[in-house]
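Quarterly update from the structural biology core.
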Amino acid sequence: MDDITINVTSPGKLILLGEYAVLEGAPALVAAVDRQCEVHIDSLYNSTFQVRTPNLNLPEIQFNLDGYGDAHFRTLVDSDTEDQLRFVLCILKYVTQNFGHIPGASIQIDTSSFYHRVTGHKFGLGSSAALTVSLLSGLVEYMGVEMSEMDLYQEAFQAHRFAQGKVGSGVDIAASATGGILSYTMPDNPDQPNGVIERINRPENLYMSCIWAGYAASTRNFVRSVNEFKEENPSAYKSIITKMCDLSKEGVKSFGSGDVDTFLEVISGFTECERELGKRSNTEIMSDVHEEIYSIVKSQGGTYKPSGAGGGDIGIAFCNSEHTMTKIKQAIDNSVFDLMNLEAQPAGVEISKTQEISE
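Predicted structure, tokenized:
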């Protein structure tokens, strides 16, 4: 067997507009960002798999995969360790069931850039999606399977749903797979992942800055609460979500055309809808923390919204002048909140492969 080494990096994501509305068929605006999931795969000469995750402080785990892709550990593994490996094992199982036998490999995964260096809190930047894209694309490359960018999005979309229980729009998968700033519309039927992905350029006079609210929030729990509100009060939910969908469409259009003033109005309107949706669903989408940041940004002439499900985590300040953004950053620096140094990542997944032919 030849010695094969695969190195893969995939960016995280930042949702600029369209949270919750994207689940109802509206376009979302998402940017791939320069936080990378790195996967390193080396071939092994037997059917053994080794997985190392340095940033999670897990010991090196060894196991074999059966014909169904289920892992059989070679040493005793406690339930906490197995639970932390669950996502990786699900991706290995998906690849086995859809692409065939995976040769033994040593796999190292590094998602450290998705965690706060001091507190250890995980940022809401799509680490599981980036991991899915990196690991899946690396494994199929290792197996010699050719895959287009759209094929990768579709397979990673399915693998991600397989691993996390058939939830999610796929917006984070699209960003990790393709990079850049995108307008993304999820598929009508998630079992046929033909979502619409369109690259879109950022207006030159639109200024954005990301702000860390200080703690992480559970996207799954927030979405579950909103879905319960949808079931219990469908008319009230429809009234709010229709506005959010209309704003998402208008926001994507104005962003793409460079109409910054209209885009900023859309952001303000969307934030108000998130505030109302949170109140009606008993979900702190616009939590007290986000409200405090909103007030700071607003007082300096900008506008603000949470990125993602809300509650805690990351928010984005928007404005139309460099001077205003400087004032916003100074005000945040003087607060208890932290500015985040995030930049859009033009490239999506990137793969390199080296192969030494055995004699």
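The longest strand covers residues 28-43.
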